[in-house]
Design brief:
Elements lengths: L2 E4 L6 H12 L2 E4 H10 L3 H12 L5 H13 L7 E4 L5 H13 L6 E6 L2 H17 L10 H15 L1 H9 L2 E5 L4 H12 L1
Parallel strand pairs: 1-3, 1-4, 2-3, 4-5
Helix pairs in contact: 2-3, 4-5
The structure holds BIS(adenosine)-5'-tetraphosphate.
Function: Catalyzes the reversible transfer of the terminal phosphate group between ATP and AMP. Plays an important role in cellular energy homeostasis and in adenine nucleotide metabolism.
EC number: 2.7.4.3
Pathway: Purine metabolism; AMP biosynthesis via salvage pathway; AMP from ADP: step 1/1
Length: 192
């Protein structure tokens, strides 16, 4: 089974993907994590995307599609892919459809985690405060200024994907305001 987790920053995509990895032997493909890893290891691409990410803007389609292609081609034996934070634009959605078709695979569900802006801001700024309180550093894009840009990018570039997957009959909406366990329960009911 291959699924997409859709939703604004802080909706809980990464959180729920992790639960599915633990419970169903699925593979999490988080473009956010891949980009952060590229930055940390100081690759040319990582250095190129750092400022874009810190400001809260989307990295180019070409880069993220390339990252996903590499992961899909790596193959492996598992319970399916969880696309976490990908696709984020219509061009990425089309590219994913073509890649899956090339591999003879299908996308089973696009699950939209629905959370209002007020809660998103609370969660993201809460995560930043927790990291600092623990003696570490907050993610460079977990601040009020970048978050505004991330939310704008979501509504402008990513939210059209809700209609895109709805038209294909693949969209499932989940109330993302509940506890992490409650959200996981709703997702489990969809996956069966
Ligand atoms: P991502 O890493 O995808 O980050 P995100 O959307 O901000 O987070 P997510 O929704 O996964 O939230 P999480 O579970 O962590 O992207 C970062 C950046 O990378 C983007 O801005 C962009 O620059 C770049 N990028 C990534 N993919 C791209 C693409 N495809 N194209 C172009 N650019 C791309 O949860 C957040 C917080 O909420 C956590 O503290 C968590 O504990 C808490 N939380 C989660 N669920 C909760 C619940 N039910 N109740 C209470 N708290 C909850």
């Amino acid at each position: 089974m291959n699924i997409i987790l859709l939703g604004p920053p802080g909706a809980g995509k990464g959180t729920q993907a992790q639960k599915l990895v633990e419970g169903r032997n699925m593979v999490q493909l988080s473009t956010g994590d891949m980009l952060r890893a590229a930055r940390t290891s100081g690759t040319e691409m990582g250095n190129k995307v750092a400022a874009v990410m810190d400001a809260g803007n989307l990295v180019t389609d070409e880069i993220v599609i390339g990252l996903i292609r590499e992961q899909l081609e790596a193959g492996g034996d598992h319970g399916g892919f969880i696309f976490d934070g990908f696709p984020r634009t219509l061009a990425q959605a089309d590219a994913l459809g073509s890649l899956m078709e090339e591999m003879g695979q299908t996308l089973d569900h696009a699950i939209e985690l629905q959370v209002n802006d007020e809660i998103l801001v609370e969660r993201i700024l809460g995560r930043a405060a927790e990291a600092i309180a623990a003696g570490g550093t907050a993610r460079a894009d977990d601040n009020e200024e970048s978050l505004k840009t991330r939310l704008m990018a979501y509504y402008k570039q990513t939210s059209p994907l809700i209609g895109y997957y709805h038209a294909k009959g693949d969209l499932k909406g989940v109330d993302g305001l509940g506890s992490m366990e409650a959200v996981a329960g709703e997702i489990a009911a969809i996956l069966g």
